[in-house]
Structure of Ferritin Dps family protein:
Amino acid sequence: MAAVKSPLSDEALKVTGQALQGALVDLIDLSLVAKQAHWNLTGRNFKVVHEHLDEVVDLARAGQDDVAERAVAIGVNPDGRARTVADRTEIPQLEAGYLADDKVVAAITDVLAQVIARFRERIAATDEPDPVTQDLLIGIARELEKQHWMFQAQT
Amino acid sequence: MAAVKSPLSDEALKVTGQALQGALVDLIDLSLVAKQAHWNLTGRNFKVVHEHLDEVVDLARAGQDDVAERAVAIGVNPDGRARTVADRTEIPQLEAGYLADDKVVAAITDVLAQVIARFRERIAATDEPDPVTQDLLIGIARELEKQHWMFQAQT
Amino acid sequence: MAAVKSPLSDEALKVTGQALQGALVDLIDLSLVAKQAHWNLTGRNFKVVHEHLDEVVDLARAGQDDVAERAVAIGVNPDGRARTVADRTEIPQLEAGYLADDKVVAAITDVLAQVIARFRERIAATDEPDPVTQDLLIGIARELEKQHWMFQAQT
Amino acid sequence: MAAVKSPLSDEALKVTGQALQGALVDLIDLSLVAKQAHWNLTGRNFKVVHEHLDEVVDLARAGQDDVAERAVAIGVNPDGRARTVADRTEIPQLEAGYLADDKVVAAITDVLAQVIARFRERIAATDEPDPVTQDLLIGIARELEKQHWMFQAQT
Amino acid sequence: MAAVKSPLSDEALKVTGQALQGALVDLIDLSLVAKQAHWNLTGRNFKVVHEHLDEVVDLARAGQDDVAERAVAIGVNPDGRARTVADRTEIPQLEAGYLADDKVVAAITDVLAQVIARFRERIAATDEPDPVTQDLLIGIARELEKQHWMFQAQT
Amino acid sequence: MAAVKSPLSDEALKVTGQALQGALVDLIDLSLVAKQAHWNLTGRNFKVVHEHLDEVVDLARAGQDDVAERAVAIGVNPDGRARTVADRTEIPQLEAGYLADDKVVAAITDVLAQVIARFRERIAATDEPDPVTQDLLIGIARELEKQHWMFQAQT
Amino acid sequence: MAAVKSPLSDEALKVTGQALQGALVDLIDLSLVAKQAHWNLTGRNFKVVHEHLDEVVDLARAGQDDVAERAVAIGVNPDGRARTVADRTEIPQLEAGYLADDKVVAAITDVLAQVIARFRERIAATDEPDPVTQDLLIGIARELEKQHWMFQAQT
Amino acid sequence: MAAVKSPLSDEALKVTGQALQGALVDLIDLSLVAKQAHWNLTGRNFKVVHEHLDEVVDLARAGQDDVAERAVAIGVNPDGRARTVADRTEIPQLEAGYLADDKVVAAITDVLAQVIARFRERIAATDEPDPVTQDLLIGIARELEKQHWMFQAQT
Amino acid sequence: MAAVKSPLSDEALKVTGQALQGALVDLIDLSLVAKQAHWNLTGRNFKVVHEHLDEVVDLARAGQDDVAERAVAIGVNPDGRARTVADRTEIPQLEAGYLADDKVVAAITDVLAQVIARFRERIAATDEPDPVTQDLLIGIARELEKQHWMFQAQT
Amino acid sequence: MAAVKSPLSDEALKVTGQALQGALVDLIDLSLVAKQAHWNLTGRNFKVVHEHLDEVVDLARAGQDDVAERAVAIGVNPDGRARTVADRTEIPQLEAGYLADDKVVAAITDVLAQVIARFRERIAATDEPDPVTQDLLIGIARELEKQHWMFQAQT
Amino acid sequence: MAAVKSPLSDEALKVTGQALQGALVDLIDLSLVAKQAHWNLTGRNFKVVHEHLDEVVDLARAGQDDVAERAVAIGVNPDGRARTVADRTEIPQLEAGYLADDKVVAAITDVLAQVIARFRERIAATDEPDPVTQDLLIGIARELEKQHWMFQAQT
Amino acid sequence: MAAVKSPLSDEALKVTGQALQGALVDLIDLSLVAKQAHWNLTGRNFKVVHEHLDEVVDLARAGQDDVAERAVAIGVNPDGRARTVADRTEIPQLEAGYLADDKVVAAITDVLAQVIARFRERIAATDEPDPVTQDLLIGIARELEKQHWMFQAQT
């Protein structure tokens, strides 16, 4: 197949494609980190935090699909393979083994803050080149910021 | 927290834990591989294969949760972090960029065959040490073998 | 298409394939027998038995799909054609015409007992060659034995 | 139980009863043929045809119940036993073993065309003796003709 | 408001209107009779017959709405008032007080047979003047005949 | 069957039984009156009033079942036959033929007011003899008074 | 693809095809007219008529699919393109701009009356050549006549 | 009724109104074109493309309502009549008669590309005058671009 | 935790608390008795009575939760432990082993009559001290009396 | 419109009206207070208390509608305007800014206790004048007392 | 708890916080005003307007939660207490007592117009400081403008 | 009724029957213990633990039905009467009165560990005599071990 004919100029495509690929790596690793915590959690607030983490997983998985399909829709191939995610993720990684609930809450709060900061840069970067992509990123950012508040409120 | 008190002996625990950790890596990477193909697919059968791949993703994600939670339920910490998956996966990786539908069908058929072979080993290995875990692995293997048939039938 | 590559050895495949084909004929004819009774029933307990028979039909139809798809998934072609069913079924057949409710209850109790006996043989036979198939047959047997009890309790 | 008192005259009953019994055999065997193809299918269009065939099965099963219950409602005993279906069906039978998707599409198109021809005769035959039965047969014929078009369009 | 302008000729309207008004009285009283039995029932089969009667009530109530709205749609005012129903109904009435289940089954079988006979006359009468109304009456008759069979089968 | 053994004294039973039988006649005729208006309605507010009347029908039908089953539960046979309703109803009857929407709203407001007055008497009468019945009547009265307000608000 | 092999004779096909194509144009334009009114409506009864018009749209859209798929099922190509609809529609067109609610009710009543008249001709025309198509047209006509009554009742 | 008082200035209103009216014509004709292909389709991929086209129809119909109601909400009358659509549409029209599946996929890919180009112009045009309208158009464009990718991927 | 501060006076609390604790024991044992019969039932009416008993179980379990939570809401600790239920229940106990359907119907009728008698005493006792509790008990009593009628009607 | 004609005497109306108006102010402010805490909450138990507060909001909003519509149904105009609520509420107000979870639990426990006390007075006051209103207030009080227990249990 | 760490600069935070607090007061009072009208409404269009007002309530309540949670997510405490709403609302207040339907429609049209004007100012104000908040406000404004059109269309 | 004819030998029946009866007592008392804690709970984690306990109740109740019906299906009468449960249960009993949340979590963790140990013995015991029963016990054990982990994780 010939590459999908993009509705964007080459320059716009490059900027937008980078924003989407970056968002994809963030969201895949966010889902892996949240699941790792979901499984290895311990502590008095186990049940609540265990279930709360799955809200983050759901959000991250829905976001993955949206940004990857947006990328290919404008003619950029998304890369969500394990090696790519492991090598390029900027999310601080969790330790192996049991994870105490208060530490998980702090860690996820921190992870979300960092991901949000990168999303805000991507929102700024795509404003001119592709408002359709920007609108998608804004929607995901709103959900991330809501989760960030809810985790931070527990600290 | 003290480690979860396992209902298994140390030896049984070791064998069962390895089976579950291996299954976890297989299932996480299966979901990533299937999503990568889901996004970068092209060809006359795009729509059908695109949707069929999401059935594999759903199966792999449901399986991840079951094996990881089974692991921690018997006192073994599951490890589903990006680095762990990237380093330990034995699943053959897809190329970056567009993927033709017939090649995807062949690749997924092959991936499933390999994963199934490892699951059959894990089923044999857990028969004595933990029939509860074995029963879980049998259930997942049946779903994997059904998907394997459906992909192979298209080749 | 080349035959589906089976995860089983030839010997295991033969035993398992026979068990599944036998189960398929049993389940298709069970559904036909139960429908025949469902339609031609008479008697004081018509309404209850009429509806109860459809539970058997549902169970038999769901089981058909599972065993036939299990067969092809391991590389054996299931045969559920009318002639095959008519020639190979071992289920005692109903008379044509109206069927009194108490006789139907007795007949279905008997049919289920015979089918169950054959399922128990298949469960024993597949224990070694294919525990995945065995697990499927166990699940269907449990449902058949539950229906057998409920019909027998009415006699 | 005495035979159900029919709202039809003897002559009308005979014609209508034959139409319904013929329809019953057609619909039971149509469901068996479509399931046989559903299970043994191969080819590039496996997934779509596999699922499409289940639409035919659903239609045929719903139709079976309607015509059989219509028969008994007017005082005629429907006969849907395996032997009856195998002996009386006029539907051309499928070969055993794997079935290529394009051949299945052609075969089902042909099977549906033949069943439809017989339904149109039954519709004509029941116009006078029992418009209630005719209305039921018209409704089923419409569904069969819709499926016939959809299979034929793929050839 | 001026009368609804009918799509039918005066003669067709008269015949069709009478058929619909007759059907309305039959269906309202059928629902009242079935409820009376539903409430005052006794006997070994209480639970089944009690619930079965509500199927008749549901059918009769849905039919009432359809025939009454059909009447006004062609410009005839339906009359479903208590006095009209009580004076014009031809359905044999139940005794006051407790009603034994076998007598109820026999009575409802008889009531349905009589209502069906009148519906068959209305179907014949409306064939020429209004096939749209005829089609509606045929649909209701099929349901009534199905219930008639199921009650008769219990006698 | 012997009469249902009542948990009430003879005197309490008589008062409660009369209240329930009266309520039954009111609710059956209310449903018939509301349906008659539902079908023959005309005027600018046709669609709204047409649908609003069905809320009254639903309320009246649900109430019928509750009061009749309450009656038999305490050992009193409810009588909801057409003749009984026509002879004993105190609800003012509608004219035959088309009914203008404003007149319908006024008529239903009036009907509801009268029914409510009788329910309030029944609530007072059953306070001592059977608080369980009283509670049921209070619940229905609340719904009737809510509908009364909503119809009156349109006048 | 060769043309779909029709179950009808050439003459029957021609008559039936014309009836279906005519019905298709009527139903597509009915949906466009009803939406135009839905959007540009004003007046005291805005909310009710606005929502009522969407019932007509739903009916017209469901009918379009049924008649177009019926046409192709018997071997006639339906034509529902914008130019075809604009040139062949016989439905009187609405003015541009705001539309008062009472005028909309009158206009839709008139549109429905005209469409119904043409449907009744098509029902008569297809009686001999194709009772299956006739049955479909009767079903749609019943819904159109019900909506016609409900709009006319508001005038 | 006086015109809806717009929250926009005259100039902003004119630009926004034109964007919405253009979008309305695009979306109505897109739904007609997709339905025409849905009905007249043939070819090996009939079933998949047939169903895929209905996703486009659903998207186009939901979009029609949103843009037309947005237009009237800011005080501009939308015009979605058959004549307007036929005369103003810029979408390339399909031939009459059967349409091969690969040609349909190519044609729809092309139609979507053209519609998307016009939506991107409308998004640019409404940025200043009405960000609320722009946000609506961005949302629809995202869906159109997703469908465009999925059709193009099949070519 | 300090004891829940009750909104009732000490005297009112004592009376109300006893009524609720008594109701709790009745309802827990009612659910155990009904399940015991549900499992060990035999006879011609097996299927109907088997399912009917589960309605009693559902009612008893919902009631348990309501009365126990009502108790603690007013500051009284409910006691639903196995020993407490076994020692304090006044419900006549079933024999071990198979239970014939007619005997079960008679036994449950009797059990319900006794439980109802105690509920009526509790309703009388709580009228003054706590109308909120009384209202809850009345609601449960109504359901118990309805089931009592339905079981008694089968004797 | 003339005032709604009340089914109550003037004196009864006055007492009942005051009870309902008081309940309305309590319930509106309860919903505002619970939402204020829902939004500004912090602390280890954030997630649980955050969601628990929305149960109180749902209860309070459902109660508002019931008491206000009950008021107008008996002829008294409910007043739920912001100024009325702010001036007449007796509920202790929360501070602005962040609210720690344990303080919120204590505050809501206290608020509920005060509201419950006023509801118990209203239940006593309406016993004679209007048992229908009393029954409504009892139902709401039960829900409030259940929530009171659940908040108090956390202190 | 330390204040939530905001992703915004102090200046951006101040502007955005004011916009959100203003929106919160508008939306809370809009829900109170719409409920007040919902309860005290009278007139020929009572039923339609009564239900239409609840659409406004639902919209306003959903919006409250979104803006308040957005505020706290960026580190600003929302204030939705009764006193705050009563003192700061700029929405014109309704009279106490019955409200005629045409006056309510006019009043709500006017209220919505004023709220929309303030939302448009907030959308302009937040464009630079926080596009995520702006996107939320745009979404609410679109719904408000749609309701404004629908109310205005009835005047 | 004669005893259900068991598909098992006498010896197999005895072993399997004991395993099922033991499991039944465990599961009934587990549901009672969990409800007792559900009702009498106090402490900071009240809400979470209160709801978590109901997951255990649901699991235990579903398990009761499965093991009891399995027992009777193989010809053994299950005994779930209050006295039997109280006398034979090996589950450590809770104190009467309020129960602090941390003590409940520890107690339930301990109860589950003991029940699991007995289930593992029953799984081993039924491996030879009845693999169908074993499969059922394995499925319940998996759920119990999952809950055990989740409670233990909170300690």
Observations:
- The beta strands of chain A are 41-42, 99-100.
- Chain A is about 75% helix and 5% strand.
